[in-house]
Amino acid sequence: MDGISKRFGATQALDGVSLAVRAGDVLALIGENGAGKSTLMKILSGAHAPDEGAIRLDGRPFAPKGPHDARTSGVAMIYQELTLAPDLSVEDNVMLGQERHTAGWLRGRQQRQRVHEALALLGHPNLRPTAPVYSLSVGARQLVEIARALVADARVIVFDEPTSSLTVQDTERLFQVIRKLKSSGRAIVYISHFLEEIRQVCDRFTVLRDGRVAGSGRLADTSESEIVSMMVGRDVRDLFPRVPHEPGEVVLSLTGLCGEEVPSDVSLELRRGEILGIAGLVGSGRTELVRAIFGLDPVRRGQVTVAGAVVSPRPKRMIRRGLGFVSEDRKGEGLAQIRSIADNVTYSRLEPYSLGGWLNLPKRAAAVRRWMGRLNVKATGPEQPVRLLSGGNQQKVAIARVLHQQADVLVLDEPTRGIDVGTKAEIYRLIGEAAAAGKAVIFVSSYLPELMAICDRIGVMSRGRLREVRPSGDWTEEAVMACAISSGDL
């Protein structure tokens, strides 16, 4: 890709970006949210056309007319925001657009064999091809997306944050697959905010900042601090800032909480000014626990107490009781994608801008601009639709909503998923400031280093049960994983 530029209205998304990927090479494409990584790859995959610049594939000019044209030419894109049809089966999603047929008749046996081979390569041969995608976990859906690219037998594969919803075991299987693809001569572009995993699978790197190339080179010759400085344009000395805070009285307690299947018999206490981390593998019941607390999933048995009062969880009721929830699925349920930033930030608390049933829109816009500045949301303004933002900026809007809501208890499910290292540091600081202001925080994450660094206590979910809660200083990453895979209490 040589001298690629792209503008969206007044926004210069890319400005003369060049990069090269060789056969058998894994290139890390790194940058903050909004740096232009996804836009550049959408141009490669045919979703956008460049305003300037040229692409060559196998030494020949390449100008795809659309995603299907790019895919049939050998370029496969695995997006961070999954592009699956939830009502179709795993097999139908994997084969969509690349069906095997003769004279219009599907060759079902051949298709199923291809799907089985792809899933087996990913280490999940038992994932049923007939299962509807809506019935799968977020992590399993990610695997379906990857299987689709494997079936296409692409020569160039772009992975955009592929491990954001995967377990440690699934991540290692994916790395094994990438190594096999590399040895078979595929060219791979790997986008991730996890610098430690980039070093495991990538050879070289290119850093984008504000739509331009900020640096490139061999990973073996470059330190982590140098890469971070290229990303953010400044030194980030503390990736896990801690704001002093002191836990106070109990504000939320669970007693024997049971969902339809999970969680199972969970009891815990959360104090004001405390950050409680919840760890566990995908499918352990972490997400189901926080959804049950907020009333998004039914509670079959048990008790939820907020500020001394027993509450039957329902989302509207829990909002009124001072709980704010950030979903791990920002695209599907965390944000109203077609609505503006202003709508999304203020929907759960419109009172400051309403009088007699009328909204004071200028007052609301001014408040939302302040939140956008505080969280460094890159957008044209409060009225920009959320769907036009990068994934990381969408996540900032979701977090801005619960902070604007002035909730006393923040329930955050994977709040830093898909967010760059510089913004993660900002989010950690905001969480610490919320705790210092007396708010209580439940922080669910698959990324153990952040739980260990910023949480006061960490609880581990396994098979729907909360196995153990300890002060974070009493855990090691190895102990957390041992607890997460255990079949009983340690």
Q: Taking Cα atoms only, what radius of gyration do you get, to the nearest Å?
A: 23 Å
Distance between the termini: 53 Å
Tell me about the largest β-sheet: 6 strands, mixed
Structural class: alpha/beta
Helices, by number, come to: 17
From the spread of the alpha carbons, the general shape counts as globular
Amount of helix: 25-40%
Beta-strand content: 15-25%
Low-confidence stretches: none
The chain-level mean pLDDT equals 89
Strand order of the largest sheet: 7-10-11-3-12-13
SS elements, strand count: 25
Structure notes:
- The strands form seven sheets. This protein has a six-stranded mixed β-sheet, with helices on both faces. It has a six-stranded mixed β-sheet with strand order 19-22-23-16-24-25, sandwiched between helices.
- The model has no long low-confidence stretch (mean pLDDT 89).
- It is an alpha/beta fold.
- Helices cover 34% and strands 25% of the residues.
- The longest helix is centred in the middle third of the chain and has 16 residues, at 168-183.
- The chain contains 17 helices and 25 strands.
What keyword list fits this structure?
alpha/beta, 34% helix, six-stranded mixed beta sheet, 490 residues
